[in-house]
Amino acid sequence: MKKSIMIIDDNLVSQYATRYAIQQSQADSDIFVCDTANEALDVLNNFYDIGQEFPDYIFIDLNKPGTNGWTFLDQFYSISEKAKNTKIYFLSSFISTMERDKADHYSTVKGFCNTPLTKNTVNLIFD
User: Which residues does the UniProt record annotate as the domain Response regulatory (predicted)?
Assistant: First the structure.
């Protein structure tokens, strides 16, 4: 089954690496890439308005300028209850214990991935 995936990252190199890892994995997927959380929220609001399903997975850079990953999640969940069906993976080069503890309060946060994302990690996520 084809997976719908959104990547939210302001770093072009990281965007490319994440997209490449997903493309090299076993997953048949449609990939949407957004530079900012606000851009992603606009796209997701548009999906909701036209009745398109939300992505199956969102990979988002946790610590980014502007709207960070946590604020994005709160705003995404406010669009529709269906947003809670999307599996969220945070991308970061460093993940603190505090961030991991905070994730426990979000049922859709399925994990944290070190950057750059690897094909093996993607395969583990999609298995």
Answer: 4-127
Domain of residue 119 covers 3-126
Residue 71's domain is classified under what CATH number?
A: 3.40.50.2300
Two tokens, residue 100: 């991991």
108-120 pLDDT, tens digit each: 999 999 999 999 9
Instruction: State the residue for tokens 């957004």.
Output: 34
CB-based burial, 12-42: b 16+ in 10 Å, e otherwise: eebbebbbebbeebebebebebbbbbeebbe
Q: Based on the structure, what is the number of domains in the chain?
A: 1
Find the largest Cα–Cα distance for the chain: 39
Coarse DSSP helix, strand, coil percentages of the chain, rounded to the nearest 5 percent? 45, 25, 35
Cα 7 from Cα 116, distance rounded (Å):
13
The per-residue pLDDT for range 15-59, each reduced to its tens digit, is 999 999 999 997 799 999 999 999 999 999 999 999 999 999 999
CA pair distance 46, 44, nearest whole angstrom: 5
